[in-house]
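Can anyone check this?
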Amino acid sequence: MKRTKWLIAICIASIAATLLFSHFCWFKRNEHVALWLEGVALVFIFALDYMNRLDDSEQLGLLRQQVEAAKKQADSSSESLSLLKSQGQEQQLRELWRVLPILDDIQNQLRFWRNLFDENRWGAVNEASRIMPIDSSTVLIQAARHSNELWNDVRETFRVIVNADNQIGRYYSQPNPAYRQESLIREAHANLREAEPRLTEIVRVFAEFEQAERTRRA
């Protein structure tokens, strides 16, 4: 039985004893016994009250410990979240540093072939070199992390450049220059003219992302 129930029981017993004392003659003649019994009851009541207070104090102390533990755990979680955020920003910056050189390489290759076609000097080259590098998919992945619009722009621009790559490759795959199809060069030239300003804009956007990430880390 809990202390509170004992306290209620003793209070009821004290009230009952008082009623008994007031109705029976023996108790009236021996009031010192009645007083002694009431005193014992009061001592029990005070003792139980004191024990309840101690129990409440222990529970309060335990509650405070639990609150402190929860606060420490929250602080630890906040620090872990900040660390993960910082690590995520560092990873994002490293990935942007990978993307920019890839875009620079594509841009340089595109300009090389565009200049050849502008000056009608494609005969000065005996074999094709691909404009799109193997790891170009990295650019698409990073574009998708920023926005669907950027991802669509990169995908469509790369599709046009890949078409030009295929046309250039087909042209130079014919070993005899006399049998090469100049229509492939014209088609590749048109694709490169279409892709160049779009690629320039994509490079600008990624350069701004990289600058913003470095500024955020500063």
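Reply from J.R.: I decoded it. The two ends are 65 Å apart (CA to CA).
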